[in-house]
Every structure is written in structure tokens, then in C-alpha cells.
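Ex. 9. Protein: Translation initiation factor 1A.
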Amino acid sequence: MSDDNGRNDLRMPDDDEVFAEVTDMLGANRVKVRCADGEERTARIPGKMQKRIWIREDDIVLVEPWDWQDEKADITWRYEKQEADQLRDEGHIH
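Predicted C-alpha cells for Translation initiation factor 1A:
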């Protein structure tokens, strides 16, 4: 999974996904995120992630914006802190 210099092969966004940073916890399995495309969206934490993956403010996540309501999205992936640092180092996120 990782090579000699400590770089991991990270999951990159699919065509319909964007990087986002969690800015606020709203409760009821919802968070406010600031997406890489400049949009602020309300993102939903899907049921399969709720108990297994804890999402906190300032986490870097992948979200999939809804086709029919652009201000909303579903979280599809959460990056560990070191993975998020690597994404910043490589210029994928700011």
C-alpha cells in the first residue's frame, strides 16, 4: 500500500466526487462541508459509516454532490489525518 518514502496510494475522487473539509457538525448525521469547488454544502453521513467511522470538524472527506440539489451531498470517504496532510503536500487540497 505504501512505498519507500512513506507515500500511500490514496483514494482519489471519482468523476462525481469532490474533496471537502468538514466545517461544522449539525447533528442528525449531517455536517456542513466546504467543498474544493468553492461550494458550502450540507453533507449526510450514510448509515454504513455512522458507527464505524467518526467524522469530526476539520476532517478531509470526499463528498458526492446530489444531482437534484446542489447544496447537499453524501459523504463517501473520510481521510485519516496523515492522508489529509499528504493530499495537502501533493497539492490536491489547500
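Check your answer against this statement. Helices lie at 47-50, 81-89.
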